[in-house]
Amino acid sequence: MLRPHGSLSVLASLAIASVSIPCLADDLADDTTITITRTWSQQPAGWSYPMSIHVPDGAAPEGGFPVCILLHGNGGNGGQMVNQYRNQLTTHALIAPSGYQSSWNICGENSDAPDVEMVDELMTTLQGFDNVNPDAIRIIGSSNGASLANRVFLQSSNPGLDTVCSVVSQLADTMARSGSFYRPSGSATTQSQPFCGYDTEITPASGRRYLGISNENDGVIPYFGGWSPVGVAFLDSRLAAYEIARTQGYKGKPIVGNGEEIESTNVFKYAYPDDRVIHLRGFANHSMNPTQRDFMLDFLATWPIEEAKDSDLNEDGQVNGADLGLLIAGWGGSSPDLDGNGTVGGGDLGILLADWTTSP
């Protein structure tokens, strides 16, 4: 049965979205129909985003397939993205929308569509399928699609979004400036507005990972920041990664310099604590080289990384009877004090039982 996970219809002041899924389709499949229709100034009667879908053969793993939303570059389409990744992300279900006039609304593109809201609704819809892991929604964006991925990373509050990979487009100063993060107050974004209309300060969600891939010899998006041919000023790629790390709780200094070279490949890694935010510096023009691509695929394959549980008292990777025995042995004493109240008691027992059989 389709899991309820948010509404399938949203009425907003600037856009109307409706999502419909065949009522008998419990599982996401290649032939599933997902329709997201929005209205805005360019399409007052409504426009539906084309969707391309690929789901791996065979049964879904326990908990469901992780899903990767693929966002194409300017002039591309979703079908091209699915064809590119279907033999690379073989453990993920893939879904790739196509943007209005083959673009995504960042600033100055042909489209003023409410694309962030579309991606938000798409994530909520995907989380309702039985064979989808609702806590493992990922995004890969390329170029113009990477800028949309950055917007979603900063703007979306969906807790199931755990990883974003931004390929050849770091943060622009429209989104991050003076220590704060911003979204547009309306759907339309134009270069005639200050910072393209990104005038509403936001607080990004935490608990996510981010990989940003940029190249020094990119002729479209300047690696070291500044004005771009696309009509937007970008941050230095390394400082953009630092800003992303700050959204995830990092309080240290920016990681700059030359980075750590990956096995003599001329690709350099800048990693923040626990590899939650990583930047790769390369020389692949406005694209990825094999090292960067393989790193991204590994990055997606090794997430989530489960953190050790305090209730795993014997540190064997399981929370079970052995840990319960250790807790009971300390009952009434000061250790192991899981709830921090100074005494081992019922609160600590509740925490241990809630973590029962967890494998970090």
Distance between the amino and carboxyl termini: 30 Å
Q: From the coordinates shown, what is the CATH architecture of the largest domain? A: 3-Layer(aba) Sandwich
Q: What's the helical proportion of residues?
A: 10-25%
Tell me the strand order in the biggest sheet: 5-7-6-8-9-13-18-17-16
Low-confidence stretches: 4-25
Largest sheet: 9 strands, mixed
Q: By helix and strand content, what is the structural category?
A: alpha/beta
Strand fraction: 15-25%
Instruction: Summarize the helix and strand pattern as letters.
Output: EEEEEEHEHEHEEEEEEEHEEEHHH
Mean pLDDT: 91
Enter the CATH topology name of the largest domain.
Answer: Rossmann fold
The tally of structural domains comes to 2
Report the strand count: 18
Shape estimate: globular
Describe the structure.
The chain has two domains: 9-301, Rossmann fold; 307-360, Type 1 dockerin domain (Orthogonal Bundle). The protein has helices spanning 78-85, 115-126, 144-155, 237-247, 290-301, 321-329, 346-354; strands at 9-11, 16-20, 35-40, 43-48, 51-54, 65-71, 93-97, 132-142, 161-167, 176-177, 180-184, 198-202, 209-215, 226-227, 233-234, 260-261, 268-271, 277-282. Helices cover 20% and strands 25% of the residues. Helix 2 (115-126) crosses helix 3. The longest helix is centred in the middle third of the chain and has 12 residues, at 115-126. The strands form four sheets. The protein has a nine-stranded mixed β-sheet with strand order 5-7-6-8-9-13-18-17-16, sandwiched between helices. It is globular and about 70 Å long. The chain has seven helices and 18 strands. The protein has 360 residues and is of the alpha/beta class.
